[in-house]
Write a structure and sequence with these properties.
single chain, 245 residues, mainly alpha, 9 helices, 2 strands, 6% strand, transmembrane helix, Gate_dom, transmembrane, membrane
Length: 245
């Protein structure tokens, strides 16, 4: 099935600049509390404040313990609603940014540069590259951008399924790894040697490679199941034709 969306827009130097900005913006490279953090998606997306749920007396006075906006001990539909509420700003912000970047030609530049790479690797077009980069930092942003690409016809259903498998295999891999998993590489044994002998770079590389492996295993699965469905449909049509005759 060919992509229904065709574009005659010329890819200019401005498009490549917009693409470069998008890669830096969604990659998390500039995630910081310094001034340059304003060019990072997660930093600009921010976070909700804290809600006090317990107060304890300390030697220095009264100190309030805090938790996230969702509070503590929630359950059922109400807790699910509050969780969904926390996703809305991220999704809206990501969609707004991708529309701005698309206006300046970032998707056209991504399509031209990344299609020769992503087509053989996962069978998806290059304009999904921004969503791929965003998904390494935020599952919400990656999912929102992928949904928009699907709705606008840039991705077929099959391409969307494969791309979704890539994203949610070790979702938000970079952020989650460096915020929690990387601490394991600092652990030491009793004699002072490192408890983990491999490097952080190797761990990230293995994780990233197997995201592609997972996507391609799903491609194989789709080839098998869609092939069976096609044969089943053909058999049904043949039987219906014979019965009608």
């Amino acid at each position: 099935m060919t992509n229904p969306v065709q574009t005659d827009r010329k890819v200019t130097i401005g498009c490549y600049i917009a693409l470069a900005f998008a890669i830096v913006f969604f990659s998390g490279l500039l995630k910081s509390n310094e001034w340059y953090g304003v060019f990072d998606f997660t930093t600009l997306n921010g976070s909700f404040g804290k809600v006090a749920y317990d107060v304890s007396e300390t030697a220095d006075g009264v100190q309030a313990a805090t938790t996230s906006l969702r509070g503590k001990g929630g359950s059922g539909a109400r807790d699910g609603f509050i969780f969904a509420l926390t996703l809305i700003p991220t999704v809206m912000f990501a969609l707004g940014m991708i529309n701005v970047l698309e206006h300046y030609g970032a998707l056209d530049a991504a399509r031209k540069l990344l299609t020769p790479l992503l087509r053989p690797l996962m069978g998806i077009p290059g304009n999904s590259g921004l969503a791929l980069i965003a998904s390494l930092q935020s599952t919400d942003a990656g999912a929102a951008m992928t949904r928009q690409l699907k709705d606008e016809g840039h991705l077929t259903k099959r391409e969307t399924d494969v791309f979704t498998m890539f994203q949610f295999t070790a979702g938000a891999a970079i952020v989650n790894f460096f915020s929690s998993g990387a601490v394991l590489f600092t652990l030491t044994t009793i004699d002072g040697s490192l408890a983990v002998s491999s490097s952080i770079g190797l761990a990230v590389a293995v994780m990233f490679v197997f995201k592609f492996v997972g996507a391609n295993l799903f491609r194989i699965y789709l080839n098998i199941t869609e092939g069976k469905e096609d044969k089943s449909d053909s058999s049904k049509k043949q039987n219906m034709t014979e019965e009608a005759a």
